Amino acid sequence: MNLRNRHFRRQKAQLCLATTKALSIVDFKKPFTLHVDMSDHTVAAVLTQIADDGTEQPVAFASNKLNQTQRNWSVVEKEAYAAIWALKRNLVTGLLGKG
User: Fold this and answer.
1) What is 3-95's CATH topology?
2) Disulfide-capable partner of 47 in 1, 5, 15, 60 (CB 3.0 to 4.6 Å)?
3) What pTM, to 2 d.p., does this model score?
4) Angle CA(42)–CA(84)–CA(65) in degrees, nearest 5?
């Protein structure tokens, strides 16, 4: 299985988990991991942290619909945009109510 498929499957699993389990409480003393993905029409991001039991837990989700110009971008451009968009969206500072 290639890297892209692994990332997609991991993000899909995290999204499925989010529908059955509450988001984890943020611990600002721990590092965050940002995962992004894209489709033909949407970019998405999930912000995670490693819980005390060693599992990766989601703490925030975000998605954004692409406009017509963005839909014409290459896969690499869409994935780069997803990361930049998620960082500009300030997922972490948004958790503080400052985003």
Assistant:
1) Ubiquitin-like (UB roll) (3.10.20)
2) 60
3) 0.69
4) 20
